[in-house]
């Protein structure tokens, strides 16, 4: 189903609680167009939809319409990034439970959810976020498929050197190691039917084995450089490097499919999805990130001759959520 609309028109959508405020090109019903493959052209026309709202509800997204979920949620009340956002750890886990249930609902059967997350040390207490998120995703119905450790280069610490406490107090009991690791936990909704993918689609999405071997994707330890604070488009956003969604999207989706990031941030997952010929849906609480996301995806005046038919829609929910939880 296609709907034609004028550019830049504020249009109320029947029977929904949101407005489409901004768009380029045609406005497709993302949920139905995701099935469309453009197998005959080398370049895939892709469609990107940003929903401004709380991802505890994904009301705009139909059941089983997403092929892959890649995200990095807040790490509870992480100092520097999310200080005091949640009332307590219980509230945080409640939010994660609702989000996990929605991800399960919108994902197609057999498909994958990739969660970049880690335990968080707050005021000397470590919160077991990885273990709790794993339990939450299992409870939502997922199978636990794998865990990858992301190792950042030494000297690339994003914000704090916790080991500095020991330098100031070289005595027992002052030890807090600098954290160079994060987790990437991978869940699956049931089993994947490999025969459901047409041969042509498989071939257009073939993985480059040289890249796979050279960059050691085959191991449970991924060496990836993190984004440093102060980067132009990622200022004040706990961004992950493009390499993370790049690997996930290549390994777990086919061209022309749809990738969801419910904690979109600066739009890294959506950007990489576009680069790789996949559609994307992002959900983000902060309205002020719209222009950053638009820029990152290349829709803010950038000329991309080869993919000028791609579309970008923003949906701003009418209900404003005062609180995250
Ligand atoms: C860790 S950042 C994601 C960064 C992203 N991976 C990137 O590369 O830019 C988490 C984002 O989730 C957003 N967020 C937090 N809670 C949310 C919620 N309940 N619904 C939607 N977005 C939320 C925050 O505003 C923040 O931008």
Summary keywords:
alpha/beta, 325 residues, binds S-adenosylmethionine, 9 helices, 23% helix
Compact summary:
The chain has 9 helices and 15 strands. The strands form 3 sheets. It has an 11-stranded mixed beta sheet with strand order 2-3-15-5-14-13-6-7-11-10-12, sandwiched between helices.
Task: Give the secondary structure arrangement, pairings included.
Blueprint: E1 2-3, E2 11-12, E3 18-23, E4 27-28, H1 30-33, E5 47-52, E6 66-71, H2 89-106, E7 107-117, E8 120-122, E9 125-127, H3 129-139, E10 143-151, H4 164-168, E11 181-188, H5 199-204, H6 209-214, E12 221-223, H7 243-252, E13 258-261, H8 268-275, E14 279-284, H9 290-297, E15 311-317
Parallel strand pairs: 5-14, 5-15, 6-7, 6-13, 10-12, 13-14
Antiparallel strand pairs: 1-4, 2-3, 3-15, 7-11, 8-9, 10-11
Helix pairs in contact: 2-3
Bound molecules: S-adenosylmethionine.
If you had to describe this structure to a student in words, what would you say it looks like?
The protein is of the alpha/beta class. Helices cover 23% and strands 24% of the residues. It is built from 9 helices and 15 strands. It has an 11-stranded mixed beta sheet, with helices on both faces. It is globular. The protein starts with a strand and ends in an 8-residue tail after the last strand. Mean pLDDT is 84; it is low at 1-41. The structure holds S-adenosylmethionine. S-adenosylmethionine binds at residues 54-56, 72, 74, 95, 237-240, 263, 265-266, 268, 283-286, 324.
């Amino acid at each position: 189903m296609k709907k034609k609309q004028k550019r830049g028109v504020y249009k109320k959508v029947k029977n929904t609680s949101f407005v489409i405020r901004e768009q380029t090109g045609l406005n497709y019903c993302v949920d139905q167009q995701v099935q469309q493959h453009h197998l005959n052209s080398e370049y895939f026309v892709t469609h990107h939809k940003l929903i401004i709202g709380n991802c505890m509800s994904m009301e705009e997204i139909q059941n089983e319409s997403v092929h892959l979920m890649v995200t990095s949620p807040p790490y509870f009340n992480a100092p520097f990034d999310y200080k005091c956002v949640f009332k307590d750890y219980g509230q945080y886990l409640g939010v994660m439970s609702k989000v996990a249930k929605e991800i399960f609902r919108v994902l197609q059967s057999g498909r994958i959810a990739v969660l970049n997350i880690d335990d968080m040390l707050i005021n000397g207490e470590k919160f077991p976020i990885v273990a709790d998120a794993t339990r939450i995703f299992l409870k939502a119905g997922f199978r636990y498929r794998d865990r990858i450790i992301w190792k950042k280069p030494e000297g690339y610490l994003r914000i704090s050197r916790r080991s500095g406490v020991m330098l100031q107090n070289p005595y027992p009991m002052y030890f807090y190691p600098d954290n160079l690791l994060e987790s990437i936990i991978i869940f699956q909704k049931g089993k994947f039917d490999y025969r459901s993918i047409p041969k042509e689609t498989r071939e257009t999405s073939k993985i480059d084995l040289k890249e796979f071997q050279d960059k050691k994707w085959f191991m449970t330890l991924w060496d990836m450089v993190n984004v440093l604070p102060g980067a132009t488009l990622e200022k004040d956003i706990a961004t992950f490097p493009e390499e993370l969604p790049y690997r996930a999207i290549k390994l777990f989706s086919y061209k022309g499919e749809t990738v969801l990031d419910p904690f979109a941030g600066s739009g890294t997952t959506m950007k990489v999805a576009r680069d790789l010929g996949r559609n994307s849906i992002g959900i983000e609480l902060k309205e002020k990130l719209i222009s950053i996301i638009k820029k990152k995806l290349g829709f803010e005046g950038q000329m991309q001759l080869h993919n000028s038919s791609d579309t970008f829609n923003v949906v701003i929910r009418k209900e404003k959520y005062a609180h995250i939880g």
